[in-house]
Amino acid sequence: MELRKISDIVWEIPKQGEMKVPALIYSSERLLKDIRNDLTLTQARNVACLPGIQLMSYVMPDAHQGYGFPIGGVAAFDLDSGIISPGGVGYDINCGVRLLRTDFREQDITAKRKELLAEIFKAVPAGVGKGGVTKLSRGVLRDILVKGAEWAVENGYGTAEDLDRTEERGRMRDAAYDHVSERAMERGAPQLGTLGSGNHFLEFQKVDRIFNAEVARAFGIDAEGQVTVMIHCGSRGLGHQVATDYIEIMENKAGTQGLPDRELVNAPFKSEIGQRYYKSMCAAVNYAFANRQMIAHWVRDVFKRVLGNAKGMSMVYDVCHNVAKVERHTVGGVEKTVCIHRKGATRSFGPGRSEIPAAYRAVGQPVIIPGSMGTASYILVGTKEAEERSFSSTAHGAGRVMSRHAAVRRFRGEQIRDDLARRGIELKSTNWKGVAEEASAAYKDVDEVVRVSHEAGLGRLVARVVPIGVMKG
Amino acid sequence: MRYEILPHTADGKFRAYGETLEEAFVNAALATASLMWDWAKVEPRIEHSIDLRGRDREQLLVKFLGEIVYLLDTERFMLGRVEDLKIEEASVIRDPQGEADVPDHLSEAGSRLRLTARFLGDALSDRSEIHGAVKAVTYNEMKIERCDCAVDGSGSPGAADSGGSAGGEKGGYVVQVVVDM
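^ Those are the sequences you sent over. The predicted structure of the assembly is below.
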C-alpha cells in the first residue's frame, strides 16, 4: 500500500475511496517492514471507512494484524453519528497491565528468587482450564461486574489506595450485567483470580535504567536495582464471550453486507444494541480489574511470607489496553465527547487530566508497556502532545512478528528456560510449548517500539525494568 | 488430510477439508482441538449434544467451534471425536420476543441453518497434556468453499469409497478459520 512519509516515524495513508478520514501510522522504517508483511495497513484503512470516525484512524508503533481493527489500532467516534464495535476492542476485553513497586532491592531477593517464584506459582492459578479459588455464585459475579476492583478491595483483596492507582479507579461506572449472556457468566464464574494462558504473564523484575528521575520518583521508582512486580492478564472467558455474543447480535441485527471484514461489525453508539454492548463491555472491564486486584493481593501475600514483609508494595498503576471509552477530547479546536476504541493501545493522558490520580496529575499518567517474555518492559509517561496526535494513546507491548506455529517449530520451551537461567532469570510455566510460542524472538523489538513512542511524543520514557522471575500460564 | 495448521502472526489458523460440508466442519472441530491437545488420545467417556442455528454457514461454523471453547471453560470438557454431524435448512424461527430482547439467549430470528452433532471426549484432569488455549473463534480470513482437493481416507471411515463415485462430481469443501489464542 502507498504510504506518504511525513517524518521518519510518522506515515499516512491518504484519504481515498470509501475512507472518511486518512490513516496515520506511528512507526519507524524498521517496524514498518513487519507491518507491511501482514494486513495491518489494510485494516487501518478499513477502520477509516467507519461511520462517525474523528480525525484519523491511528496505528501505534507495535501494531500487527488483528481481526477487523488492527492490534495497536486507535479510533474515536462521534457519539451521535458514530459507532461502537466489539472488533475495535478485541476479544480479551480489558487485557491490561498492573505494576507494583517495592522497597526491596535486587540483592534482597536474589537468594530467595526461586522460592518466591515457586510460591507465586502456587498462589496464582494459571494455565488452560485452571479454575480460580472458588466458583462464584451468580449474585457475587453480578456484584463484581458492577463494582470491579472495588468489590475485590471490599472483600479483603488489597487496599483503597490500590483503587486510586487504577485506571477508572478499577470500576467503569457505565457497567451493567443485564445484557451479559448466561454463557459469558458461566465462563466467568470459575475463572476469577486466574492468570490464564497465551501471552499473559506475571513477573518480578528489577529497575535497570531510569531515563527520567523526576517522573520516576513521582511513580515510586527510586533507584536502579529496585524490585517491581508486573501482572499482565485480562477478563478471561467472560470477556471473550461478551465479544463473541455481540458480534453475533450485531450481525443478526444489521447483517454483514458492505463490511470489508465481518469482524468490523458495529452498531451506532447510541442505539439500543450499541449501548448494551458498551455496558456489557464495561462489566467485562470490571471483571478484569477485579482479577488483577486479586492476583496482586496474592503476590503481596507471597512476598510477606517468603521475605518477611511486603513493605512498600504499592501500586504504580494499572492500565487497560483493550477497551472502548467515552472521553473528552479536542477535535478540530472544539472540545467534544467521543467514544474512543483502543485495541492493543494504552491511554497516555498528559499532565492536568482529571481522570488521572492526584499524585500523578502534575507529571502525567504512567503507561506500562510489557515486553515479551524474558525481555525488558518499560514505564512511560503520558503527554500533552498525545492529546492531539493520537487521542491520548500509545503502544501496548512488543507485538508479535512470528506465528505461534513457527515459534514452536523453531524453539523449545525447556531450552528457553535454560537460556534465561544462564542470564539469571527464573522461569516457570504450566506448559513448555506455550513458552516456545512466546519466545522473545517471535516479537518485535520492544526497545524500538518505545523509542518511536518517545520520539513521536505519544508516551515518553521514564524507566526500564528487566525480569528476575517469570511465571507463564 | 483432515486439516492443516497454517502460519498466523498472532493466533491460530487452519484449513480443514471434507468430502462434504459436514465432514469439513467435523475436521475443523478436530483442528481446533489440535491447537490445545492431541484429540486422538482423548477417551470418549463423556458426551455432549450440540444443536445450534446460524444465519449463514460462516456464523454456523463460528458458533459450532465456539462450543468447544465454551465446554472447555464451563465443563472442563476435552473434545476427542465428533459424530453424527448434520447441517440442514431450518425453517425460519420466529423469535417470540420480537427482537434480541432476552438477555440470556441470543436471538435466533432469521436463522436459516441448523447444526446438530454429538461431541465425545473426556474431562480435563491434572494428567491432561494441554499445549495451548483457543479463547475465541473469529470470522477473520474465514473461508468456506468448494474445492477439488481430495480428502484422503486416513482415519475417516467411508471416505475412501465415496472419493471415486458419489463425491466425484461435487468435489470437496475447504474451510479456513482463524482462532484467538
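The CA atoms of residues 54 and 76 of chain A lie 6 Å apart. The radius of gyration of chain A is 21 Å.

Shout if you want it in another format.
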